[in-house]
Design goal:
With about 250 residues, the protein is of the alpha/beta class. The protein has helices at about 1-25, 30-55, 60-65, 80-95, 115-120, 130-145, 170-175, 190, 230-245, and strands spanning about 55-60, 70-75, 100-105, 120-125, 145-150, 180-185, 205-210. It has 9 helices and 7 strands; from the N terminus they run ααβαβαβαβαβαβαβα.
Length: about 250
Protein backbone atom coordinates (compact mmCIF):
# COMPACT_ATOMS: atom_id res chain seq x y z
CA UNK A 1 0.00 0.00 0.00
CA UNK A 2 2.86 2.38 0.81
CA UNK A 3 4.38 1.69 -2.61
CA UNK A 4 1.05 2.56 -4.25
CA UNK A 5 0.82 5.79 -2.27
CA UNK A 6 4.36 6.69 -3.28
CA UNK A 7 3.53 6.03 -6.92
CA UNK A 8 0.43 8.22 -6.66
CA UNK A 9 2.44 10.99 -5.04
CA UNK A 10 5.05 10.85 -7.78
CA UNK A 11 2.32 11.02 -10.43
CA UNK A 12 0.77 14.09 -8.82
CA UNK A 13 4.17 15.75 -8.55
CA UNK A 14 4.72 15.04 -12.24
CA UNK A 15 1.40 16.67 -13.11
CA UNK A 16 2.26 19.62 -10.87
CA UNK A 17 5.68 20.06 -12.46
CA UNK A 18 4.10 19.95 -15.92
CA UNK A 19 1.41 22.50 -15.09
CA UNK A 20 3.69 24.99 -13.39
CA UNK A 21 6.62 24.11 -15.64
CA UNK A 22 4.90 25.54 -18.70
CA UNK A 23 4.73 28.94 -17.07
CA UNK A 24 8.36 28.77 -15.96
CA UNK A 25 9.47 27.81 -19.48
CA UNK A 26 7.66 30.83 -20.89
CA UNK A 27 9.18 33.31 -18.42
CA UNK A 28 12.44 33.94 -20.35
CA UNK A 29 10.36 34.89 -23.39
CA UNK A 30 8.07 37.21 -21.45
CA UNK A 31 5.06 35.04 -22.25
CA UNK A 32 4.29 33.77 -18.76
CA UNK A 33 1.76 36.56 -18.10
CA UNK A 34 -0.02 35.84 -21.37
CA UNK A 35 -0.21 32.20 -20.32
CA UNK A 36 -1.68 33.17 -16.94
CA UNK A 37 -4.21 35.45 -18.62
CA UNK A 38 -5.31 32.67 -20.96
CA UNK A 39 -5.66 30.15 -18.15
CA UNK A 40 -7.59 32.58 -15.94
CA UNK A 41 -9.93 33.61 -18.76
CA UNK A 42 -10.69 29.98 -19.52
CA UNK A 43 -11.23 29.14 -15.83
CA UNK A 44 -13.51 32.14 -15.41
CA UNK A 45 -15.70 31.01 -18.28
CA UNK A 46 -15.82 27.46 -16.92
CA UNK A 47 -16.82 28.67 -13.46
CA UNK A 48 -19.49 30.96 -14.92
CA UNK A 49 -20.95 28.14 -17.04
CA UNK A 50 -20.88 25.73 -14.10
CA UNK A 51 -22.60 28.26 -11.84
CA UNK A 52 -25.36 28.91 -14.36
CA UNK A 53 -26.15 25.21 -14.27
CA UNK A 54 -25.61 24.28 -10.64
CA UNK A 55 -24.59 27.20 -8.39
CA UNK A 56 -26.47 30.36 -9.42
CA UNK A 57 -24.92 33.66 -8.39
CA UNK A 58 -25.62 37.36 -8.69
CA UNK A 59 -22.88 39.97 -9.04
CA UNK A 60 -23.80 43.53 -8.08
CA UNK A 61 -21.94 46.80 -8.82
CA UNK A 62 -18.73 45.21 -10.11
CA UNK A 63 -18.80 47.38 -13.23
CA UNK A 64 -19.58 50.41 -11.09
CA UNK A 65 -16.86 50.13 -8.46
CA UNK A 66 -14.03 47.89 -9.70
CA UNK A 67 -11.72 50.34 -11.51
CA UNK A 68 -11.29 49.75 -15.23
CA UNK A 69 -7.57 50.45 -14.87
CA UNK A 70 -5.17 51.15 -12.05
CA UNK A 71 -4.36 49.58 -8.69
CA UNK A 72 -6.70 48.75 -5.84
CA UNK A 73 -7.00 46.33 -2.95
CA UNK A 74 -10.17 44.24 -3.07
CA UNK A 75 -11.14 43.41 0.54
CA UNK A 76 -13.69 40.60 0.78
CA UNK A 77 -15.67 38.88 3.50
CA UNK A 78 -14.73 35.21 3.72
CA UNK A 79 -17.40 32.57 4.31
CA UNK A 80 -15.93 29.74 2.27
CA UNK A 81 -12.96 28.65 0.17
CA UNK A 82 -15.40 29.04 -2.73
CA UNK A 83 -14.98 32.82 -2.31
CA UNK A 84 -11.47 32.59 -3.75
CA UNK A 85 -12.76 31.12 -6.99
CA UNK A 86 -15.88 33.27 -7.25
CA UNK A 87 -14.12 36.59 -6.59
CA UNK A 88 -11.50 35.97 -9.27
CA UNK A 89 -13.92 34.50 -11.81
CA UNK A 90 -16.45 37.33 -11.40
CA UNK A 91 -13.83 40.05 -11.85
CA UNK A 92 -12.27 38.44 -14.92
CA UNK A 93 -15.68 37.80 -16.51
CA UNK A 94 -17.25 41.19 -15.76
CA UNK A 95 -14.33 43.60 -15.54
CA UNK A 96 -11.85 41.78 -17.79
CA UNK A 97 -9.22 42.23 -15.10
CA UNK A 98 -7.14 39.80 -13.08
CA UNK A 99 -7.24 39.52 -9.31
CA UNK A 100 -4.00 38.58 -7.57
CA UNK A 101 -4.88 36.84 -4.30
CA UNK A 102 -2.88 36.04 -1.20
CA UNK A 103 -3.17 32.32 -0.45
CA UNK A 104 -1.96 30.38 2.56
CA UNK A 105 1.61 29.17 2.15
CA UNK A 106 0.74 25.49 2.67
CA UNK A 107 -1.25 25.39 -0.60
CA UNK A 108 1.97 25.87 -2.56
CA UNK A 109 3.32 22.61 -1.16
CA UNK A 110 0.45 20.43 -2.40
CA UNK A 111 1.02 18.83 -5.82
CA UNK A 112 -1.43 19.97 -8.52
CA UNK A 113 -2.87 22.61 -6.14
CA UNK A 114 0.50 24.36 -6.33
CA UNK A 115 0.34 24.52 -10.14
CA UNK A 116 -3.27 25.68 -10.02
CA UNK A 117 -2.76 28.58 -7.61
CA UNK A 118 0.44 29.77 -9.27
CA UNK A 119 -1.15 29.90 -12.72
CA UNK A 120 -4.26 31.63 -11.30
CA UNK A 121 -2.65 34.78 -9.91
CA UNK A 122 -2.07 33.58 -6.34
CA UNK A 123 0.99 34.21 -4.20
CA UNK A 124 1.93 32.71 -0.83
CA UNK A 125 1.19 34.24 2.56
CA UNK A 126 2.38 32.84 5.89
CA UNK A 127 -0.69 33.28 8.07
CA UNK A 128 -0.37 34.17 11.73
CA UNK A 129 2.84 36.14 11.26
CA UNK A 130 4.14 39.26 9.52
CA UNK A 131 5.10 38.10 6.05
CA UNK A 132 7.34 40.81 4.58
CA UNK A 133 7.94 38.90 1.35
CA UNK A 134 4.21 38.63 0.69
CA UNK A 135 3.66 42.28 1.57
CA UNK A 136 6.50 43.42 -0.69
CA UNK A 137 5.19 41.26 -3.53
CA UNK A 138 1.74 42.82 -3.13
CA UNK A 139 3.23 46.33 -3.05
CA UNK A 140 5.09 45.59 -6.28
CA UNK A 141 1.87 44.38 -7.92
CA UNK A 142 0.03 47.53 -6.87
CA UNK A 143 2.86 49.72 -8.15
CA UNK A 144 2.29 48.07 -11.54
CA UNK A 145 -1.42 48.88 -11.50
CA UNK A 146 -2.74 45.43 -10.53
CA UNK A 147 -5.68 44.40 -8.35
CA UNK A 148 -4.76 42.59 -5.13
CA UNK A 149 -7.40 40.59 -3.27
CA UNK A 150 -7.31 40.10 0.49
CA UNK A 151 -9.54 38.57 3.15
CA UNK A 152 -9.17 40.82 6.21
CA UNK A 153 -10.60 38.08 8.45
CA UNK A 154 -7.65 35.86 7.59
CA UNK A 155 -9.70 32.66 7.54
CA UNK A 156 -13.27 31.60 6.82
CA UNK A 157 -16.03 32.68 9.18
CA UNK A 158 -19.12 30.61 10.04
CA UNK A 159 -21.36 32.43 7.57
CA UNK A 160 -24.76 34.02 8.10
CA UNK A 161 -23.17 37.46 8.30
CA UNK A 162 -21.06 36.71 11.38
CA UNK A 163 -17.74 38.25 10.44
CA UNK A 164 -14.54 37.55 12.36
CA UNK A 165 -12.32 40.21 13.88
CA UNK A 166 -10.15 41.42 11.00
CA UNK A 167 -6.40 41.75 10.78
CA UNK A 168 -4.95 45.17 10.00
CA UNK A 169 -2.68 43.98 7.17
CA UNK A 170 -5.11 45.12 4.49
CA UNK A 171 -4.97 48.65 5.87
CA UNK A 172 -1.16 48.63 6.19
CA UNK A 173 -0.85 47.57 2.56
CA UNK A 174 -3.34 50.12 1.20
CA UNK A 175 -1.70 52.96 3.16
CA UNK A 176 1.79 52.01 2.02
CA UNK A 177 0.69 51.72 -1.62
CA UNK A 178 -1.67 54.72 -1.42
CA UNK A 179 -4.46 52.90 -3.24
CA UNK A 180 -8.23 52.62 -2.69
CA UNK A 181 -9.80 49.61 -1.06
CA UNK A 182 -12.82 48.09 -2.80
CA UNK A 183 -15.08 46.42 -0.19
CA UNK A 184 -16.70 43.20 -1.35
CA UNK A 185 -19.50 41.47 0.53
CA UNK A 186 -20.10 37.81 -0.27
CA UNK A 187 -23.36 36.20 0.83
CA UNK A 188 -24.16 32.49 0.84
CA UNK A 189 -20.98 30.78 -0.32
CA UNK A 190 -20.84 28.85 2.96
CA UNK A 191 -23.92 26.99 1.73
CA UNK A 192 -22.28 26.08 -1.58
CA UNK A 193 -19.04 24.85 -0.04
CA UNK A 194 -19.20 24.64 3.77
CA UNK A 195 -16.11 24.76 5.93
CA UNK A 196 -14.55 21.28 6.03
CA UNK A 197 -16.97 20.27 3.28
CA UNK A 198 -16.15 17.39 0.97
CA UNK A 199 -18.10 18.54 -2.07
CA UNK A 200 -20.09 21.43 -3.55
CA UNK A 201 -23.82 21.59 -2.80
CA UNK A 202 -25.74 21.77 -6.06
CA UNK A 203 -28.61 24.25 -6.18
CA UNK A 204 -27.23 26.64 -3.56
CA UNK A 205 -26.64 30.24 -4.59
CA UNK A 206 -24.58 33.26 -3.60
CA UNK A 207 -24.44 37.02 -4.05
CA UNK A 208 -21.31 39.11 -4.54
CA UNK A 209 -21.66 42.85 -4.10
CA UNK A 210 -19.01 45.55 -4.45
CA UNK A 211 -19.17 48.79 -2.50
CA UNK A 212 -17.84 52.24 -3.30
CA UNK A 213 -14.07 52.65 -2.91
CA UNK A 214 -12.90 53.15 0.66
CA UNK A 215 -10.34 55.97 0.94
CA UNK A 216 -10.29 57.15 4.57
CA UNK A 217 -6.88 55.57 5.08
CA UNK A 218 -5.20 57.56 2.32
CA UNK A 219 -4.78 60.60 4.55
CA UNK A 220 -1.92 58.66 6.16
CA UNK A 221 -0.22 57.46 2.97
CA UNK A 222 2.44 60.14 2.70
CA UNK A 223 2.93 60.83 6.39
CA UNK A 224 5.60 59.50 8.74
CA UNK A 225 5.61 57.82 11.07
CA UNK A 226 2.86 55.54 9.84
CA UNK A 227 -0.32 55.37 11.96
CA UNK A 228 -0.11 53.28 15.12
CA UNK A 229 -1.94 50.01 15.66
CA UNK A 230 -4.90 51.71 17.35
CA UNK A 231 -5.54 53.88 14.30
CA UNK A 232 -5.13 50.92 11.95
CA UNK A 233 -7.58 48.97 14.10
CA UNK A 234 -10.19 51.74 13.90
CA UNK A 235 -9.83 52.05 10.14
CA UNK A 236 -10.02 48.29 9.63
CA UNK A 237 -13.11 47.96 11.81
CA UNK A 238 -14.71 50.79 9.86
CA UNK A 239 -13.90 48.99 6.60
CA UNK A 240 -15.44 45.77 7.92
CA UNK A 241 -18.63 47.66 8.73
CA UNK A 242 -18.73 48.73 5.09
CA UNK A 243 -18.28 45.11 4.01
CA UNK A 244 -20.95 43.90 6.43
CA UNK A 245 -23.35 46.43 4.94
CA UNK A 246 -22.94 44.77 1.54
CA UNK A 247 -24.27 41.42 2.75
CA UNK A 248 -27.78 40.21 1.94
CA UNK A 249 -28.58 37.83 4.79
CA UNK A 250 -31.36 39.97 6.22
CA UNK A 251 -32.25 42.07 3.19
CA UNK A 252 -34.04 40.78 0.08
CA UNK A 253 -32.31 41.48 -3.23
Amino acid sequence: MSALKQLGKQFLELVDDAGYGIMKLLQPFGLDRQYQNTVENFSGQVVDAMCKIAFPYKAIDFEKYIPAVGPAVVASSHNSEWDVIMNAATIVNINKRYLWQMAKHSLFKIPVVNAWVRTHFAFPLRRGETDKDSMNFALDLLSKGELVGMFPEGTTNEGNGKLLEPHVGVMRLAIEADVPIIPLGVTGTENIYPKHGKMLNVGKSCVLRCGKPYNKHRQFSHKYPRPDYGTLRELTDDLMNEIKGLLYYNTPI
